[in-house]
Amino acid sequence: MSDSPSNTDSSNNLDELRETIDQLDTDILRLISERAACAQHVANVKLSRDKGTVFYRPEREAQVLRRIMALNPGPLDSEEMARLFREIMSACLALEQPIKVSYLGPEGTFTQQAALKHFGESAISLPMAAIDEVFREVEAGAVNYGVVPVENSTEGVVNHTLDSFMDSSIRICGEVVLRIHHHLLVADTTRRDKVSRIYSHPQSFAQCRKWLDAHFPHAERVPVASNAEAAKLVKTEWHSAAIAGDMAAKLYGLTLLTEKIEDRPDNSTRFLIIGNQDVPRSGDDKTSLVVAMRNQPGALHDLLEPFHRHQIDLTRLETRPSRSGVWNYVFFIDFKGHHEDPQVAAMLEEVRLRAAEVKVLGSYPQGVL
Ligand SMILES: C=C(O[C@@H]1C=C(C(=O)O)C=C[C@H]1O)C(=O)O
């Protein structure tokens, strides 16, 4: 078939456009390489100042991403652009020092997804079997950072994580929020019309309860330790399906029978980045505290009054049973601001006078991505 004049025009045009893209790629390549070399210089400067230095700077990375999002002219949306820059920074940092991150495993969990979202794909991520193991690895210095879930918008707080902070010297260095999409997954061998058993983590069952009641009212729901574990089990049984996320589906080669079955479309989980580092101000920060109050009337009011007076914005308040005599009431409090902000420092001073004990778990940049 011969080209019509207009086809020839458009193919000439296509050739030109592709030439432009090649030229742009050459420029991007040169610029990324220059950026990487610059990051290596930064590493040398840091090393010359302090041999045991930490190369990773959470506050600086947050500033870089926020700046890119503010400058982004489109047509790519700002989150997409920030994700690209996230990966560039991750690769640059890996040149300085590959960052090691432990997370609540096994491989394929949402926590791994959160770890990679925060640190980028160049980070080395190591699965742990339980939340307290993630804490232990960080405390022992076996890894640079850890990632643990702390609250879900549908199911509430992850108590294991809060409890682990009570007996630990670990700091919070960052947060990351992940939209959680659950899918109904099957294997090639699954008889799709005969699904009589569904595996998943109890939290995921809870987040998909209405959908399951409507579509699989008679299937047996079998709770397992993780969504990744559920995905693995499906491979061995022709009458079973699993509820899990994209990473687990990819890892175990499963098919998405129905996508996004979570009851609430805004279902999301917040994860904490834990480490041994005190993070300087980034300009848009949050602080987490654990506070023990004596068991007396008005204790909670006394605790919150200085927050109100200093106009500090609380973002979360949780109560946990105490595990020692002194710690009658234990409150976990998140608020906007950094502990070095003068207003926050003044407020903390007053809270310290009223409480039996105050521990600043960390000030860290608000999640960017
Ligand atoms: C280059 C630096 O070190 C690391 C790499 C960064 C980057 O690639 O932009 C930013 C912060 C650090 O995690 C720096 O501190 O500026």
Automatic annotation (TrEMBL):
Catalyzed reactions per annotation: chorismate = prephenate; prephenate + H(+) = 3-phenylpyruvate + CO2 + H2O
Recorded coiled-coil stretches: 7-34
PROSITE patterns hit by this protein: ACT, CHORISMATE_MUT_2, PREPHENATE_DEHYDR_1, PREPHENATE_DEHYDR_2, PREPHENATE_DEHYDR_3
Pfam family for this entry, one: PDT
Residue ranges of every copy of the Chorismate mutase domain listed in the record: 8-100
Pathway(s) per entry: Amino-acid biosynthesis; L-phenylalanine biosynthesis; phenylpyruvate from prephenate: step 1/1; Metabolic intermediate biosynthesis; prephenate biosynthesis; prephenate from chorismate: step 1/1
One GO BP: chorismate metabolic process
Location of this chain's protein in the cell: Cytoplasm
Annotated ranges, domain ACT: 288-365
Keywords for this protein: Amino-acid biosynthesis, Aromatic amino acid biosynthesis, Coiled coil, Cytoplasm, Isomerase, Lyase, Multifunctional enzyme, Phenylalanine biosynthesis
GO cellular component, one term: cytoplasm
Enzyme Commission (EC) number: 4.2.1.51, 5.4.99.5
Physiological role: Catalyzes the Claisen rearrangement of chorismate to prephenate and the decarboxylation/dehydration of prephenate to phenylpyruvate.
Xref: NCBIfam families: CM_P2, PRK11898.1
Full protein name: Bifunctional chorismate mutase/prephenate dehydratase
